[in-house]
Design goal:
3 copies of one chain form a homotrimer. With 130 residues, chain A is α+β, with helices and mostly antiparallel strands. The first copy, chain A, has a single domain, classed as Jelly Rolls. Chain A has a 5-stranded antiparallel beta sheet, covered by helices on one side. In chain A, strand 5 and strand 6 form a beta hairpin. Chains A and B meet through strand 3, helix 3 and strand 8 of A and strand 4, helix 2 and strand 5 of B.
Chain lengths: 130, 130, 130
C-alpha cells in the first residue's frame, strides 16, 4: 500500500511536521511489524527526522543550512535554485522508520519533517509500508 | 535478488545517471510492489536522487559541495581524499525507492545518480529488490 | 525482530564502529537474505557508513563537519547544540544494508558508525532485519 500525503508549505524554506500523517498511514495499513519508507518525489525538498519539542530547532536547521557556503557559488542552472537542489541531496529525499507493535518506532524527541527548500509550494510525500 | 551494476566514472567528481540501469534491474526481478535499495560499496562515492532534466544541476551539485569549507581542513588521512569521504557520508551511500506496478515510483524530475567524489574509477552499485 | 544496541560514547564528537554489533544481530536473526535497517533514535547523533581501515578518516569526518560554517550561526535553540541537530539531519539517523547469504553486504573498506555530535552520552541503535 502506498499512501500519498499532500503538504502545503507556507515559506521559501521551512520544516513541516508530518509525523501525525505518517503515523495515521501506518495505523490505516494495519501493519504491526515492518518498515515505513517516507519518500518525497521532489528535487528541491527533502525528508528528515529531528527534534519535535522546541520549534526553534526547525528554524535553526534552515538557518544552519543557509550559513554553509552553498548559497553563493557560481551556479549554471538557470532557475537559480541550485542551492535548494544541493540541500535536497544533502538531507535526502527519504527516511526509513521501523514499525513495531503497529506504531512508528521513533525516539522520544524525534519527529518526521518535510523540508521545503524552494517554496512555498504544494508537495507530495509517499508512505510505503512493508 | 541482488543486481550488481558497474559504472565507469570519467572525472574526479561527477554525477552519473544510473536510473535506466536500476529500472532494468527492477523489470528483470519481476517484482511489482516493493522497495529497491540502491547501495554503493565505496567510501568516496555516494548515491543520490536529484533532477534529471537540466544537466547543469548535476554539475552545480558538485560545485556546491566544493564551495563548502570541507576541502581545506587540516586532515590527518594520508591519502589526501578526506573531503571525498566526508561528501560520501553527507550524501549517503544508498537510496531507497518505492516500486509500484513493477516500476520505480520516482517524481517527474527525479533521476538516480552515482556520485563520484574521488575518480575516475570503476564503481559498483548493488540493487536489492524486496 | 528488533535488536537494541547500547553505545557509550566517550567524547563530545566521535564516530564509534558498530559493525561487529550489527553483524552479530544479523547472525542472531538467522535471516539469510534481506535488509538491515540501522536506526538511532536520537536527534544529535547519526548513523553513517565509511572507511574501516585508517582511523584518521573517522576523526577527519568530525573535523570536516566542524570546518563547515554551521557551528557559528546565530541560533535560537536555548540548549546551544543546534549544530549537532543539523549534523544529525545532514548525515541522517539511519542506514540500510543489504543482507546476502546471512551476512552484511558491505564493501571491503566499509564499516557502520554511530556518529556522536553532542556527547559523551549513552546512545541506542535499533537494528531491524527484514
Amino acid at each position: 500500500m502506498i499512501k500519498i500525503l499532500t503538504v502545503r508549505t507556507g515559506f521559501n524554506e521551512e520544516l513541516v511536521d508530518i509525523t501525525a500523517k505518517v503515523s495515521a498511514a501506518v495505523a490505516e495499513s494495519g501493519v504491526k511489524d515492518g518498515l515505513a519508507c517516507v519518500f518525497t518525489p521532489h528535487t528541491t525538498a527533502a525528508v528528515t527526522i529531528n527534534e519535535n519539542a522546541d520549534p526553534d530547532v526547525r528554524s535553526d536547521i534552515i538557518l544552519g543550512l543557509k550559513s554553509m557556503r552553498i548559497e553563493s557559488a557560481d551556479y549554471a542552472h538557470i532557475e537559480g535554485n541550485s542551492a535548494a537542489h544541493i540541500k535536497s541531496s544533502l538531507v535526502g529525499c527519504s527516511e526509513i522508520v521501523i514499525i513495531d507493535k503497529g506504531r512508528l518506532l521513533l525516539g522520544t524527541w524525534q519527529g518526521i519533517y518535510l523540508c521545503e527548500f524552494d517554496g512555498p509550494r504544494t508537495r507530495e510525500v509517499y508512505v510505503k509500508i512493508i
